[in-house]
Design goal:
It is built from eleven helices and twelve strands. With 326 residues, it is α/β, with parallel strands linked by helices. The chain has a domain of 93 residues. It is globular.
Length: 326
């Protein structure tokens, strides 16, 4: 197993008090596997990613539980040790490449940073590796692009540079946080194909964070659905799309446009994800967004229940759930 997360909690300090953004998250990722994490903005997907690779402010954040990379505990690991893990063993593809790239450094120098830290390559070898990486991510003129600054590149090109940095040292695990946000459909497809190619070539495990269920259906092996800091359902991509159980999973799928069904309007989930301060930490957190079923039986402390092999659902409310139109 590449990565194993058990009872992971992450709390942020707001106005002198800590509020949990992650509650009791349990997930794992294997080699040659793509695990998709889906949910609305504010559900805790990116917080989970930054918790894994240790990119958080220790004075404002508390992480507890266990996150093990190949049996090596990451929670509580020193900053120096995490510097050795990030880039070499775990690569990160950030959501906003323009914000992630240093505007004052040329592309080649930014890729070389990871190579300098984790390898003993000579300068000439690093230059060759930069050319190789830029070619690998589909950049047509790697020599020219290597000398450019981020602002001189298009959004798709910047995203390819971010991917080149993430795979420079051939990490076993890649975390891709919304890798196709703000890209047009053609470039989006190219980036997704590139990620799948890299995964096959390097036998890497990928955590794909997205809100695009179409991308999940195309790429993922397994799916974890997050809501309000919790995993509410997990299983294979086939189980989640053909036999969704949790009301939130079913609501997300119902809100997708479908070519084979004619509707007057798209389904919209009532309300919104609660803020950290307003988030209730007891009972079923999604119950208020299905107001027409306010008397639906819920667990006071919802647990994950196995409903099929490899398929888990939080709370028992899914057994009686129906949409208001049904």
């Amino acid at each position: 197993m590449l990565l194993e997360m058990k009872n992971v909690n992450a709390a942020f300090k707001v106005d002198g008090h800590y509020y949990n953004a992650l509650d009791d998250v349990c997930l794992n990722v294997n080699e040659d596997e793509i695990l998709a994490i889906v949910g609305e903005s504010g559900c805790g997907k990116s917080t989970l990613a930054t918790s894994i690779i240790g990119l958080y402010n220790e004075k404002q954040t508390k992480i507890s539980g266990s996150i093990k990379y190949r049996d090596q505990e990451l929670v509580g690991t020193s900053a120096q040790e995490m510097d050795q893990i990030r880039g070499e063993k775990i690569g990160m593809i950030f959501q906003d490449p323009l914000a992630a790239l240093n505007p004052l450094m040329r592309v080649a120098d930014q890729i070389k940073e990871s190579l300098t830290l984790h390898t003993t390559l000579s300068e000439e070898q690093k230059d060759l590796r930069v050319q190789e990486l830029l070619s690998q991510v589909g950049i047509q003129n790697p020599k020219r692009v290597a000398k450019q600054y981020p602002h001189e590149l298009s959004g798709g090109m910047r995203q390819r540079v971010i991917i080149a940095i993430a795979i420079a040292c051939k990490p076993d695990l890649i975390i891709a946080d919304e890798p196709t946000t703000a890209l047009d459909v053609t470039i989006q497809a190219q980036i997704l194909d590139l990620l799948m190619k890299i995964q096959r070539e390097n036998h890497a495990g990928i955590i794909l964070i997205t809100h695009d269920l179409g991308v999940v259906a195309q790429m993922a092996d397994r799916v974890a659905v997050m809501y309000a800091g919790q995993v509410v359902e997990s299983g294979s991509v086939q189980q989640l799309f053909t036999e969704p159980k949790h009301p939130y999973t079913r609501s997300l799928l119902r809100s997708m446009p479908q070519a084979d069904k004619v509707r007057d309007k798209l389904y919209v989930i009532e309300g919104m994800v609660p803020s950290l301060k307003n988030m209730e930490h007891s009972g079923c957190r999604f119950s208020k967004r299905v107001s027409w079923l306010s008397k639906l039986p819920h667990e006071s402390e919802p647990q994950m229940h196995q409903v099929a092999e490899g398929h888990y659902v939080r709370c028992v409310c899914w057994k009686d759930f129906k949409f208001s139109q049904e």
